[in-house]
Amino acid sequence: MADRQLDCLGLNCPMPIVRISQTIKTMAWGETLEVTADDPAFGADVHAWIAKMGHELLAFEEGPMQRAVIRKV
Q1: Which residues does the annotation mark as catalytic?
Q2: What does the pLDDT look like over 8-47, one tens digit per residue?
Q3: 10-20: b or e for each residue (b if 16 or more CB lie within 10 Å)?
Q4: CA distances (Å), 33 to each of 61, 66, in order?
Q5: Is the dihedral of CA 49, 52, 54, 58 positive or negative?
Q6: Is the N-terminal amide bond of 16 cis, ω within 30° of 0?
């Protein structure tokens, strides 16, 4: 189970990434964030954001409701 959960269901690009960025800033190093989203662009967006920001993507589940688990590093 992640340290924090973030519900981005119903939000369209770029809002899930904006919310992730805001939440990650308030977290301690090593904490994990579980994000759920249903925006079709979320998968590509979160992978690009992880690559750019240098955090760790621990898990990603595709489907109508997508789930990402991110560790702040």
Answers
A1: 13
A2: 999 999 999 999 999 999 999 999 999 999 999 999 999 9
A3: ebeeeebbebb
A4: 14, 14
A5: positive
A6: no
Residue 20 — φ and ψ, nearest 5°?
Answer: -60, -45
Task: Tell me the torsion sign for CA atoms 33, 37, 39, 40.
Answer: positive
Around Cβ 57, how many Cβ atoms within 10 Å?
A: 14
Alpha-carbon distance of 68 to 37, in angstroms, equals: 9
Residue type, 9: L
The rounded radius of gyration (Å) of the Cα atoms in the chain is 11
